[in-house]
Amino acid sequence: MTHPNDPPQLRLRVVFGEGRMVGPGKAELLERIGRCGSIAAAGREMGMSYKRAWMLIETMNAMFAAPVVESTRGGPGGGGAVLTEMGEEILRRYRALEAVADEAGAAEVAGLAALLRDVSE
């Protein structure tokens, strides 16, 4: 959640067509799956239901030329999930694009922020 005194930030979404996009939420989900090794744990960390997290992964798996996440079914030891090479590349390229956009847009974002009404009271 953002607060009035937080620095402004540019949030980037790449839209490939109807229902086909990658943005900050999907990138964060991929990062957390990579770190947690679990779709359920990644979703919980984001305050997202397992069903919603799985739906986003299924969307990305269908959208790209190869799956972005592979999962194993639960059992006595529990299931898990890993980013594929495709998932790692998508995340790397998205984060690189964010960095380029942040740098290129910094002056304009600061200019827009300067035009904001003061809400500190």
- What structural class should be given to the helix and strand makeup? alpha+beta
**CATH class label:** Mainly Alpha
The run of helices and strands is EEHHHEEH
Shape: elongated
Q: What is the CATH homologous superfamily assignment? A: Winged helix-like DNA-binding domain superfamily/Winged helix DNA-binding domain
Q: What distance lies between the first and last C-alpha atoms, to the nearest angstrom?
A: 19 Å
Percent of residues in helices comes to 40-55%
Q: Per CATH, what is the topology?
A: Arc Repressor Mutant, subunit A
- Give the integer mean of the pLDDT values: 91
**pLDDT < 50 stretches:** none
Our estimate of the beta-strand percent is 5-15%
Could you characterize the architecture of this molecule?
There is one protein chain. Helix content is 53%, strand content 12%. With 121 residues, the chain is of the alpha+beta class. The strands form two sheets. A two-stranded antiparallel ribbon has the order 1-2. A two-stranded antiparallel ribbon has the order 3-4. Helix 1 crosses helix 2, helix 1 crosses helix 4 and helix 2 packs across helix 3.
Secondary structure elements and pairings:
Layout: E1 14-17, E2 20-22, H1 24-36, H2 39-45, H3 50-63, E3 69-72, E4 80-83, H4 85-114
Helix pairs in contact: 1-2, 1-4, 2-3
The gist of it:
The protein is α+β, with helices and mostly antiparallel strands and 121 residues long. The chain is 53% helix and 12% strand.
